[in-house]
Amino acid sequence: MLINDVLHESSAGWWNKALYILDKLFGFESDGNSKLKRVKQVFDQKSGEHVIYLEYRVKASNQSPIQTTLTRKPKVKADKKAKGSK
Asked: pLDDT at residue 76 above 80?
């Protein structure tokens, strides 16, 4: 793939190619389970560079979310009278 091919395509085509490359890079199948979005863009004053944060998400076909059980400690208020009676 030449850079000119990417630059002359629509932005949707570019994102799809980027997804395809990332899927191959990380070893996932390109079956529509991956997403790529620009989270934010800033300008680094010190280096004079644009910094673009991308988020790449992929759900493998054989994985599901891990179920966790939240165990919370009960909130017990100390008895003010018992504290000072020693």
From this structure: no
